[in-house]
Amino acid sequence: MIDPAQLSEWFEAHCAPLTLYARQWLDRAATEDVVQEVYVRLMSQPATPTNVKAWLFKAVRNEAISQSRSTLRRRKREQNLPGAREEWFETSASDLIDGAAARKAMESLPPAQREVIVLRIWGQMTLKEVAAVTGSSISTVFDQYRAGLKALRERMSAPCKTKKE
Question: Is the pTM of this model over 0.90?
Answer without folding.
Answer: no
